[in-house]
């Protein structure tokens, strides 16, 4: 496994984020905005057969990001996910298997960015349904000029169609959402299908959310493209996660999250942690 492959796996471990509104578009003139810090450090990964293997040296990835949803109309919502500071690290290894000292390295840059439009197909029924078209912009550094092949992006432009459905059990204090998506990838990378679901509770100011996300490769890409992570080629996983939100005021809240990967291929075998602060308008 090459250094480039390992670092793309790290990127893939952090690449998925959820749309805050589920099947509900934002009302006209209102929005949801969040600043987040996510990070992962790992010395183990799932290989192409799903076996957990030691990774030396260990690697890390840190992303400071902005996420926003804004209602242009009661049905049409604009969405952006922008990691405006991304840091990939290779940790120092005093002696490798050949007895050679390997110094650490780091790359700081912008990250790959998503922009999307969500349209409410069904907005006034017990089950609401929306469709989202997402464009993945390769604004990060793909590691082409980095001596350690550290990356903050994969260099490919992707387009994804996603359908969300949600239901609130009001006056009971919980809701459920589910989604399905097809992700078209360029530059020889395999297309993907994605599925996910979540259950959220509203307990006064405390809002816990349990989620599960899956990614399945169609293995229809160029065989010469490396097997290098969720951001890149032929990665598959089932990822459960827990997100805890607390409303400090009517509009401002804080959140913390932890996600991991189960039954995975080509992805780090360590939890991904996140913290953030959000604003509801």
Structure description:
- This protein is mostly beta strands and 281 residues long.
- The chain has one domain: Porin (Beta Barrel).
- It is built from one helix and 15 strands, in the order H-E-E-E-E-E-E-E-E-E-E-E-E-E-E-E.
- The chain has one helix at residues 3-13; strands at residues 31-46, 52-71, 76-90, 105-109, 113-122, 127-137, 158-168, 174-184, 192-201, 206-217, 236-247, 252-259, 262-265, 267-268, 272-280.
- Strands 1-2-3-5-6-7-8-9-10-11-12-15 form a twelve-stranded antiparallel β-barrel.
- It starts with a helix and ends with a strand.
- The model is unreliable at 5-16 (pLDDT under 50).
Task: Summarize this structure as a short list of keywords or feature phrases.
281 residues; 56% strand; Porin; mainly beta; globular; 12-stranded antiparallel beta barrel
């Amino acid at each position: 496994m090459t250094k480039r492959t390992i670092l793309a796996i790290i990127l893939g471990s952090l690449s998925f984020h959820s749309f805050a509104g589920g099947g509900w578009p934002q009302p006209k003139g209102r929005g949801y905005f969040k600043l987040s810090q996510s990070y992962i450090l790992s010395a183990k990964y799932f290989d192409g057969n799903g076996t957990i293997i030691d990774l030396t040296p260990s690697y890390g990835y840190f992303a400071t990001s902005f996420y926003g949803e804004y209602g242009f109309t009661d049905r049409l919502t604009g969405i952006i996910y922008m990691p405006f500071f991304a840091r990939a690290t290779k940790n120092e290894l005093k002696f490798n298997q050949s007895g050679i000292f390997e110094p650490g390295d780091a790359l700081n840059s912008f990250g790959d960015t998503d922009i999307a439009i969500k349209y409410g197909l069904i907005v006034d029924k017990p089950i609401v349904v929306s469709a989202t078209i997402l464009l993945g912009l390769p604004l990060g550094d793909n590691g082409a000029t980095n001596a350690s092949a550290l990356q903050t992006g994969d260099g490919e432009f992707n387009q994804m169609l996603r359908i969300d459905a949600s239901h609130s059990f009001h006056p009971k204090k919980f809701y459920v959402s589910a989604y399905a998506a097809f992700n078209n990838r360029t530059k020889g990378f395999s297309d993907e299908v994605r599925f996910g679901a979540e259950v959220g509770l509203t307990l006064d100011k405390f809002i816990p959310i349990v989620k599960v996300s899956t990614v399945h490769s169609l293995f229809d890409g160029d065989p010469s493209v490396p097997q290098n992570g969720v951001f890149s080629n032929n990665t598959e996983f089932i990822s459960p996660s827990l997100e805890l939100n607390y409303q400090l005021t009517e509009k401002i809240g804080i959140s913390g999250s932890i996600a991991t990967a189960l039954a995975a291929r080509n992805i780090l075998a360590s939890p991904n942690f996140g913290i953030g602060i959000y604003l509801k308008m």
